[in-house]
Amino acid sequence: MLATKHQNTIDNAVKANHERRFYSQYPEHPKAYGEAAAASGMTSYQQLLNQPFDRLLQTGSNERVGEEVSPYTLENLGITYPSFTVEELVAQAGAAGRQWANTPVSNRADILVETLERVKGLFFEIAYATMHTTGQSFMMSFQASGPHANDRALEAIAMGYEELHRFPAEQRWEKPMGKVTLQLQKTFKAVPRGIGLVIGCSTFPVWNSLPGIYADLVTGNPVIVKPHPKAVLPIALVISAIQQVLHENGFDPHLCQLAADSSAQPLTTALCEHPRITLIDYTGGSSFGDYVESLRGKTVFTEKAGVNSVILDSVKDVDAVVQNLAFAVCLYSGQMCTAPQNFFIPEQGIATAAGNLGFNETAQQIRDAIAALVNNPKMGAGTLGAVQNDVTLQRAQDAARLGGKVLLQGGPVPNEEFSKARMCSPTVLEVTSADHNIYEKELFGPVILLVKTKNTAHSIQLARQMAEQHGAITCAAYTTDPVVKEKIAEEMNSVFTPVSFNFTGLIWVNQHAAFSDFHVTGGNPAGNASFTNQEFIVKRFVWVGNREVVSD
Amino acid sequence: MLATKHQNTIDNAVKANHERRFYSQYPEHPKAYGEAAAASGMTSYQQLLNQPFDRLLQTGSNERVGEEVSPYTLENLGITYPSFTVEELVAQAGAAGRQWANTPVSNRADILVETLERVKGLFFEIAYATMHTTGQSFMMSFQASGPHANDRALEAIAMGYEELHRFPAEQRWEKPMGKVTLQLQKTFKAVPRGIGLVIGCSTFPVWNSLPGIYADLVTGNPVIVKPHPKAVLPIALVISAIQQVLHENGFDPHLCQLAADSSAQPLTTALCEHPRITLIDYTGGSSFGDYVESLRGKTVFTEKAGVNSVILDSVKDVDAVVQNLAFAVCLYSGQMCTAPQNFFIPEQGIATAAGNLGFNETAQQIRDAIAALVNNPKMGAGTLGAVQNDVTLQRAQDAARLGGKVLLQGGPVPNEEFSKARMCSPTVLEVTSADHNIYEKELFGPVILLVKTKNTAHSIQLARQMAEQHGAITCAAYTTDPVVKEKIAEEMNSVFTPVSFNFTGLIWVNQHAAFSDFHVTGGNPAGNASFTNQEFIVKRFVWVGNREVVSD
């Protein structure tokens, strides 16, 4: 048993969760991990290609699956993973769970931090695996699947550690009853809910899955991880590290299992509906997410689709604003759940420090900033990354057919490193506020809509309505007027949508920082859960108290 | 504004919630409230009879409803309450909510404690109102609807106060980026979920409703209270006190509304399904409870029916045990959700300090202890109270038809004070472990089943199965063997059922103490919520964070 090797890390993370200042356990810059790490990570990644993946400690499979294709090379990775039946997965999880449930949370947390340290050694491998399954740039792949995901995992561990220590394991209860005192010895246990299932997505296979995995584990539940069949390798590497650390510490590695499946024979529904699966974390499209939320007798945590707004009212420096927004739009080709989509701009334009800027001029500046970024040979390809799949590519290429006026037509982007990369630059459409049917849907990928409104009050009303009816994970707003700012905050917050005001420079609305920003609020249709508030933790276990009369 | 008049009370309650020692803000003994209080409470209660109830500050009603009948006198109380349409109630709640949502939680908590102090002045009136609607004895009416309910309300206020202070309202986030530091000003708000609805039951109209009412209010949500039409007066008195204190402090009394309805024209379903009602607390039968839990887009807290077990393995003093159990069975004629129903006894009997006691002898002792209590002229009527309604009475009178062997036939009990009281002493039936169809249902009221099992392991298996499949709120177990004790705890806790071991003397399995015992765990079919764990609080609001770039 590791005892309290990582107590200091846990204590600091608990404190950071409360304070919500900037905090990070895992530095986000690749250079922090040594000179040689990148090259050796690349070599390790390449050695995984065209091989059966053999690092898992899951036993008993005779079948293998694998269908990953790099969005950069369009080649099959050729990696296969062991596959299991739902009954095998559930039985193994159930058997592994008992010892874990009876392990004190301090020990569980310590072992889980040790798994993160083991994952740290794989950051570069995981980065290349993420790049060649999701289409993210190398830098985003490294940060999102590496240090940022580990930080969010640590955040969940710390929240669990704190919540499970909330009540004493034993307490003497002494009630004065006149001349006598009634005495009971009480015990309080946080009993894990059951077996967890974490369903991953194809664009953020690690970042979106780690909070649920670690929240399940720290609260004592075994977890089965069902990745998207096109993005298995990044999370398979993480799970292999978790399994190894569990095994080394005398625990059953089946506490955290990979449930790889195929597009032809998916396991997801059967897993969701298995009576012993009581906790489900889901990231993905809204229609399957709504199905998961509708399951009776399950505790469900979802992140689904949303329609994110930008409200433009008034700015100090319009160049800084449009450059910031252009980057937010181009980053990973709009395939982030936090990417802005609907830009609400008043028909009379916006106020700037240099005077009023008309609607057409504002739209033109946004369009030009995006075009400039896309066409910047040092920035374009690296910011856009690749498009994860052909469906998204097709939708982006056909965006002009949605309606409205095409201000910028997306198309191929040259990529010096990967000539076959699946790419499409953003399409910018101008629509009117009457075009609800166009802008009330999530247009996942590189498509944005500039919506002409009557005025800022109208913009706020529409942004609020979109968030309330269709969900929103972010809202960017630009205003120099404190009254307007207060109004935007009140209206968007009332539909449980956070607002990022006046972002310029090296910070973008797409980014949510561990230990400080709640990712998704859980209050609107974009999802019912939040990384990582108390609800994300406390719904995974049940407080049960026993009592005994103290004999004299 | 009261500022921090009750800060000390709140701080002590927060501490008590953590420690889970004995703690009480409101003494449970009537004598603690002064010599004159009982008589003046009786007078006030009598003045309410046969009158329109006029203490509410709700406006705009032209209709009145009222159909309460005393289980002691079988006479109609003759009290009518103003009635409102669902749209009126929801509109008033929505209008009242805005100011409350923007009031700091410290002020909300302070005002809410002040309402409890006001309720304290009505304890005796509420006691008589409870007695003559529920059929509880005077002492239970006083304690359950008075100090015990107030303590549970304070527990919820304190949990909300702590949770809403968990994160800072403002924080500066400073991220080092090489030569520059990125600075964001962040704000964190706990945004209330919407409008709450609390649906009461006819047996514990105050105790079971106050936690939901106060949890909604402390987290910033207005609340509509829909009592059982046969038990309105006790909670109407509480609501009148809440409304008066809100009004005196400049808040809209419609933050907490009474939604009285009639058996002929119930409002419950229409309230539940109104889109602006987003939080529902429900106490009552399982079939309506299952419906409430199935509603999409609502956050629901339920306490439904359960089948509570007693596991008899071995005892030190059999007389002390059967006396304790007899009292637990007779208390309020088995109409407590915590009352024991199924007594699992091994066919070879139980071990006692005086040697083995056979099954028949054990059964006989339980039967005799109940008969002795019922027939004790100083104890019987007062312990049993009255039966709340005719359906329960009929079921109790017909219990022998359920099957099995009748060890004790329930029937009328003389009541010196109320000659017409609706009463029925407990029926004791002996059944076999094969009689699932008899013992797997909740038999609400004065009926218990002695189930003959193969051995204690079999008893545990059946008790566990009942809790898992049909729900359980309590389990009483008697064993002198530490290994058996551990086994019972593990098995019952695994189905989220707390165990009370070896209760004798002045403590009964039916009792759950505020600040220490979680009432219902929320983990089995008896209910999905718990008084008062964190989940009971944190699901009522949403953390939303805004960010702004700090300008130089």
Mean pLDDT of chain A, as a whole number?
A: 97
Oligomer: homodimer
CATH class of the largest domain in chain A: Alpha Beta
Radius of gyration of chain A: 25 Å
The largest sheet of chain A has its strands arranged as: 14-15-16-11-10-17-18
CATH third-tier fold name of the largest domain in chain A: Aldehyde Dehydrogenase, Chain A, domain 1
Task: Categorize the overall geometry of chain A.
Answer: globular
Largest sheet of chain A: 7 strands, mixed
* Helix count from the secondary structure assignment of chain A: 19
Structural class of chain A: alpha/beta
Classified in CATH, the superfamily of the largest domain in chain A is Aldehyde Dehydrogenase, Chain A, domain 1
Descriptive report:
The structure is a homodimer of 552-residue chains. Chain A is an alpha/beta fold. The first copy, chain A, has two domains: 7-304 and 529-547, Aldehyde Dehydrogenase, Chain A, domain 1, CATH 3.40.605; 309-501, Aldehyde Dehydrogenase, Chain A, domain 2 (3-Layer(aba) Sandwich). The first copy, chain A, is 39% helix and 18% strand. Chain A contains 19 helices and 19 strands. Chain A has helices spanning 7-19, 37-48, 86-101, 105-120, 123-134, 138-145, 147-164, 210-218, 233-248, 268-273, 286-294, 318-330, 359-375, 380-384, 390-397, 436-439, 456-470, 482-494, 534-538, and strands spanning 63-65, 81-83, 170-177, 180-192, 195-199, 223-226, 256-258, 277-283, 299-303, 309-312, 342-346, 350-352, 355-357, 405-408, 427-432, 447-453, 475-478, 500-501, 541-549. In chain A, the strands form five sheets. A seven-stranded mixed β-sheet of chain A has the order 14-15-16-11-10-17-18, sandwiched between helices. In chain A, strands 7-6-5-8-9 form a five-stranded parallel β-sheet, with helices on both faces. The first copy, chain A, has a three-stranded antiparallel β-sheet with strand order 3-4-19, with no helix packed on it. In chain A, helix 5 (123-134) packs antiparallel against helix 9 (233-248) and helix 17 runs parallel beside helix 18 (482-494). The two termini of chain A are 38 Å apart. At the A-B interface, strand 3, strand 4, helix 18, strand 18 and helix 19 of A face strand 3, strand 4, helix 18, strand 18 and helix 19 of B. Strand 18 (500-501) of chain A pairs parallel with strand 19 (541-549) of chain B. Chains A, B: This is Phenylacetic acid degradation protein paaN. Chains A, B: One of its GO terms (cellular component) is cytoplasmic side of plasma membrane. Chains A, B: Residues 85-514 form the Aldehyde dehydrogenase domain. Chains A, B: One of its GO terms (molecular function) is L-glutamate gamma-semialdehyde dehydrogenase activity. Chains A, B: It comes from Chitinophaga japonensis (Flexibacter japonensis).
